[in-house]
Automatic annotation (TrEMBL):
<dbReference type="GO" id="GO:0005829">
    <property type="term" value="C:cytosol"/>
</dbReference>
<feature type="domain" description="Cytidylate kinase">
    <location>
        <begin position="6"/>
        <end position="219"/>
    </location>
</feature>
<dbReference type="GO" id="GO:0005524">
    <property type="term" value="F:ATP binding"/>
</dbReference>
<keyword id="KW-0067">ATP-binding</keyword>
<keyword id="KW-0963">Cytoplasm</keyword>
<comment type="similarity">
    <text>Belongs to the cytidylate kinase family. Type 1 subfamily.</text>
</comment>
<dbReference type="Pfam" id="PF02224">
    <property type="entry name" value="Cytidylate_kin"/>
</dbReference>
<keyword id="KW-0547">Nucleotide-binding</keyword>
<dbReference type="InterPro" id="IPR027417">
    <property type="entry name" value="P-loop_NTPase"/>
</dbReference>
<keyword id="KW-0808">Transferase</keyword>
<feature type="binding site">
    <location>
        <begin position="10"/>
        <end position="18"/>
    </location>
    <ligand>
        <name>ATP</name>
    </ligand>
</feature>
<dbReference type="InterPro" id="IPR011994">
    <property type="entry name" value="Cytidylate_kinase_dom"/>
</dbReference>
<dbReference type="GO" id="GO:0015949">
    <property type="term" value="P:nucleobase-containing small molecule interconversion"/>
</dbReference>
<dbReference type="GO" id="GO:0006220">
    <property type="term" value="P:pyrimidine nucleotide metabolic process"/>
</dbReference>
<dbReference type="InterPro" id="IPR003136">
    <property type="entry name" value="Cytidylate_kin"/>
</dbReference>
<protein>
    <recommendedName>
        <fullName>Cytidylate kinase</fullName>
        <ecNumber>2.7.4.25</ecNumber>
    </recommendedName>
</protein>
<dbReference type="GO" id="GO:0036431">
    <property type="term" value="F:dCMP kinase activity"/>
</dbReference>
Length: 222
């Protein structure tokens, strides 16, 4: 069995990280959530009041930033300059600003470089927006996960309620649609299905169902 790279891309809240974590656990692979990297730098930029429309300043900021994704039993811990930011980077302010930070070529260049270093050794499941198209274009398995906006908002709403966060379905639908639009229409590495990616519509599927479908695809390759 050879170690491979599995790229999982798709729009916001399509279940990428949930599924990617499970696939990684099953295969004993490293799970890498690239969205968390963009979120962490956005969090830092907001805290330091860096202008999110200024790519040079953001680039300087990233250069001075250490970002570590530590493997945990059920996912990953995000460490930003020695502080654990795993939870706080999911907040609404970061969620609603991250696409503005991620649209800059200078920001992406630096992030992609770091992500490619992480993926070099294979044995990785990486989730994001441009993994199959730019970060690991030679990934052995590429998955593109989609689901209806309605279903994605319902899932995120349930998740928020479980965590005890305030949550409104209508607002979530708007936020998810807006983020999809920004991510799909940006000039640099927009969210798009790689020509050789396998699309899975998870709208009517369970998490286990999606995981198993991906594992079947992986087994055919290995
Ligand atoms: O995956 P998640 O929803 O946490 O990603 C947050 C944001 O980071 C996305 O909406 C997108 O703007 C950006 N992102 C990106 N490229 C990636 C991963 C995330 O542009 N590979």
């Amino acid at each position: 069995e050879k170690k491979i790279a599995i790229a999982i891309d798709g729009p916001a809240a399509a279940g990428k990280s949930t599924v990617a974590k499970k696939v990684a656990k099953e295969l004993d692979y490293t799970y890498i959530d690239t969205g968390a990297m963009y979120r962490a730098i956005t969090y830092k930029a907001l805290k330091l009041k860096v202008d999110l429309e200024n790519p040079e300043q953001l680039h300087q900021l990233i250069k001075k930033t250490t970002l570590n994704l530590e493997q945990e039993q059920n996912g990953q811990k995000v460490i930003l300059d020695n502080a654990d930011v795993t939870e706080i980077i999911r907040n609404q302010q970061v969620t609603n600003s991250v696409s503005d930070v991620a649209k800059h070529a200078l920001v992406r260049e630096e992030m992609v470089k770091r992500q490619q270093e992480m993926a070099q050794e294979r044995g990785v499941v990486m989730d994001g927006r441009d993994i199959g198209t730019h970060v690991i274009p030679d990934a052995e398995v590429k998955i593109f996960l989609i689901a209806s906006v309605e279903e994605r908002a319902i899932r995120r709403n349930k998740e928020n309620i479980q965590k005890g966060y305030p949550s409104r379905l209508e607002q979530l639908k708007e936020e998810i649609s807006k983020r999809d639009k920004l991510d799909s229409e940006r000039e640099v590495s927009p969210l798009i299905k790689a020509h050789d990616a396998i699309e899975i519509d998870t709208t009517a599927m369970s998490i286990e169902g999606v995981k198993n479908e991906i594992l079947v695809i992986v087994e055919k390759i290995r």
